[in-house]
Design goal:
By secondary structure, the chain is mainly alpha-helical. Helix content is 48%, strand content 6%.
Length: 154
């Protein structure tokens, strides 16, 4: 089942609206929803009133992450973002790969496991080399509820 429906011509809308839309990390854009989108999707009053671009959101995430006292706190911060807004998560990671890979990569994931931070398989990154192309293939190949898991090409 598609996450979107055609409204008319080239206008599409997600099947979800209101709080349900905000609870879907694949559709949630946070404060990047425009005023028109907020009206059409039943989001008025559910978000901070100021509309932000994805670049502004990315800057806030980076500022907040950099204030965290250690890598484990940064990891928890980033996984929390992944659970809320996948598009923004991947944008932050891809635009700041040298800074983010040590945070979301296996050593910190292992540390999180030792202290009991819950994470599912989709959230655990196992890229062997910090190469951008490989990370992109790995990210896009992550299992989604609506499609079976598959491996990226070798």
């Amino acid at each position: 089942m598609s996450r979107y429906r055609i409204v008319s011509g080239d206008v599409i809308r997600p099947h979800r609206s209101g709080a349900d839309l905000l609870h879907d990390p694949q559709l949630n854009k946070g404060t990047a929803f425009t005023e028109e989108e907020r009206r059409n999707l039943g989001l008025l009053g559910l978000l901070a009133p100021k509309v932000s671009t994805i670049e502004q959101q990315e800057q806030r995430i980076l500022e907040n992450s950099r204030k965290k006292p250690n890598d484990l706190e940064k990891y928890i911060h980033m996984i929390s973002l992944l659970e809320r807004n996948e598009t923004l998560f991947y944008r932050v990671v891809m635009d700041n790969i040298d800074e983010m890979m040590p945070i979301i990569y296996t050593p910190v994931v292992g540390q999180a496991d030792q202290v009991g931070v819950a994470c599912n398989e989709r959230q655990v990154f196992g890229v062997l080399v910090g190469e951008r192309r490989q990370l992109q293939r790995s990210c896009w190949a992550s299992p989604r509820p609506e499609r079976p898991a598959h491996r990226p090409p070798s």
